[in-house]
Design goal:
Layout: H1 8-12, H2 20-34, H3 44-58, H4 61-77, H5 87-98, E1 116-122, H6 124-129, E2 131-142, E3 157-159, E4 168-175, E5 178-185, E6 194-196, E7 208-219, E8 228-231, E9 247-253, E10 260-262, E11 265-273, H7 274-279, E12 281-287, E13 290-296, E14 305-308, E15 324-331, H8 338-350, H9 362-370
Parallel strand pairs: 1-9, 11-15
Antiparallel strand pairs: 2-7, 3-6, 4-5, 8-9, 10-11, 12-13, 14-15
Length: about 375
């Protein structure tokens, strides 16, 4: 079979300096798109053959060096000739490279169980300290009556007559480019390679039944809203004793009306009356760790920020904590008695420009607090 005339690096969409991992990733991405078991494009087989040929050359250091120095002519002169591609066999080759069945057509390979999604809701303060919660969920487990094989106890299980027990059907087609072997999962036995003659009365031949379970989930300190915790092997049972899937627990952190979280930092506000702001006061303020007393000096201005270093959220699976910034809000009275109004008018009459003069460097201090 003659090699394609197109540039192999261009076919894979990688640069000439691409390393082995980049080339593998590019090939895997294109193979998922172009494999005839996946793509319905009329030229899918031809394009797949091209990228497979490109990968065959560039994944081998000797043929890649020959191609880099002399191009296609150098490959032909060196005796290189692309092979006939069996799509089913290629999936097994990719599995060796990438650790899984790329196209999901692994023939008699037992199907891993499906994953399960669950959800748990916690408070923000619990997200700061970490917490353990029980999470209920439904999961498919092997049927106790048939042991997971789907057959009524004592009844026979025979080889599938359609695929002869292989679990796969192959179709060979010929074109000007050579032979192509298209492999698909046998629709009669769903890849099992066997047929149950009498289905189990408990699971109706599925080999699995649903069960209510509860997991103790440890939620680490610093977790963010929407993050997931993976519990390996706790999901749905695989077909005929295959590996179980995983459980993904999505953590929902409830909003706390006292705080706003930004990354690992926490923001809150504290209210001072105009008298407290003018004369100074000690105010109880909520933090993630509980209430603390903050002292505010005379002349505290609205919009000032008090920085509490290391009082924010813990760094998830890391060290240290974020900061807590407390924004000062000066509360202006909305309803005054006649006496209060008279006193304020007297205060205003006695005030001078010096009464409201800003401290030197106030805005510089404010910018520093924001930083």
């Amino acid at each position: 079979m003659a090699t394609t005339g197109r540039d192999y690096y261009e076919l894979l969409g990688v640069s000439r300096g691409a390393d082995e991992q980049e080339i593998k990733r590019a090939f895997r991405r294109l193979a998922r798109e172009l494999h005839p078991d996946v793509s319905e494009a009329p030229d899918a087989e031809e394009r797949f053959r091209e990228v497979a040929e490109a990968y065959q050359v560039l994944s081998n250091s000797e043929t890649r060096e020959l191609y880099d120095r002399y191009g296609h002519e150098g490959l032909r002169g060196g005796g290189f000739s692309p092979g006939t591609f069996d799509f089913g066999n290629l999936s097994d080759i990719f599995s060796a490279f990438f650790g899984d069945d790329l196209f999901g057509v692994g023939g008699r390979r037992r199907a891993r169980g499906a994953d399960v999604a669950a959800e748990v809701e916690i408070e923000l303060v619990e997200a700061a300290t970490g917490v353990q919660r029980e999470v209920p969920y439904q999961v498919a487990v092997p049927c106790g009556r048939c042991g997971g094989d789907g057959a009524e106890p004592g009844t026979p299980i025979s080889a599938c007559p359609s695929c002869g027990g292989s679990g796969r059907l192959q179709q060979v087609s010929r074109s000007v480019f050579g032979e192509f072997v298209r492999t698909q999962t046998c629709p009669r036995c769903n890849g099992a390679g066997r047929v149950v003659e009498t289905a189990c009365s408990e699971c109706e031949g599925a080999g699995r039944v649903l069960e209510e379970r509860t997991l103790d989930v440890t939620i680490p300190p610093g977790i963010h809203d929407g993050q997931q915790i993976r519990l390996s092997g706790e999901g749905h049972a695989g077909a005929r004793g295959a590996q179980a899937g995983d459980v993904y627990v999505r953590v929902r952190v409830k909003p706390d009306p006292r705080f706003v979280r930004e990354g690992n930092d926490v923001f809150s506000t504290v209210d001072l009356t105009i008298a407290q702001a003018a004369m100074g006061a000690t105010i109880a303020t909520d933090t993630i760790d509980g209430s603390i007393e903050l002292e505010f000096g005379p002349g505290t201005q609205p919009g000032e920020i008090r920085l509490l270093r290391g009082r924010g959220m813990p760094v998830l699976q890391g060290f240290g904590r974020g900061d807590h910034r407390v924004l000062v809000n000066v509360v202006v009275p909305r309803r005054l008695t006649d006496e209060q109004r008279r006193l304020l008018e007297e205060f205003d009459r006695l005030s001078t420009d010096d009464t409201y003069a800003a401290d030197e460097g106030f805005f510089q201090k404010l910018k520093s607090a924001f930083r």
